[in-house]
Amino acid sequence: MVHADLHVHTDNSDGTLSLEALPDAARRSGVAVVAVTDHDRLHPGFAAPVVERARITLIHGIELRVQAPEQRVDLLGYGVEPTPALRSEVERLQANRRERGRAIVECLEDDLGVSLDVEITEGLGRPHIARAVVAHPETEYDAMDAVFAELIGDDEACFVAREVPDFDRGRRLLEDASAFVGLAHPLRYPDPLAALDLCSDLDAVERYYPYGDPSVPGETDPHAAVDRAIEAHDLLATGGSDAHGEDLGAAGLSAAQFEPVAGRLADVSDAPMS
Prior knowledge:
Layout: E1 4-8, H1 22-28, E2 33-39, E3 50-53, E4 56-67, E5 72-78, H2 84-112, H3 126-135, H4 144-152, H5 167-177, E6 180-183, H6 192-197, E7 204-208, H7 223-233, E8 236-239, H8 255-265
Parallel strand pairs: 1-2, 2-4, 6-7, 7-8
Antiparallel strand pairs: 3-4, 4-5, 5-6
Helix pairs in contact: 3-4
């Protein structure tokens, strides 16, 4: 049973849940601890790095995309207490997100011959745009996956890349503002072994998440590569659902697995870490 879902997005970025609705959603899913990890954005609703709301422990986190030497990867900062440097970088990234979102919407409107109902605001992500395409009565798309696969996924006709910090700068920004920093979903990247090599400079890696059947060259069990990295670099093992909707707990940590994470968060917590 999932006790802690440490990778959840809210309507502060491209999720659908508000922070106020999160405790009820967690209870419905049987989850006691939730980390809010919005894309490239700090959640303004947190007064402390870890808080308790309606008997649910909420961790202020962030998912920050960075450019590593081989590929772009996502870093997860947990127990965030924002520094001026991180706030400044997030503001820069949000301005770029708005510019990028406007460019994608304009491309789609030209390509599909429709006018999409998309507000160009902070936190805008491709899921927002894909939902608007699906909702439009004059498009042929009835699923967000198809919009990504045919129109706005990486390398598709209306894809526009974002500006992101390099790995070292992103890591330093998160280290200065977080209780610990980890690598998100390591087996999802084009080169998972190169992604795992980055863990030598991190505190944690996401071990449990609900995506498909990953593969790693030369590995019968792809998760063995993650386990080796955890042992080699003495990493915390985290986990989460990467939820963008209202169903939490598709993956995460048991109560026993969460204990080492709770220990790292205890110094910044205003809530019981159990």
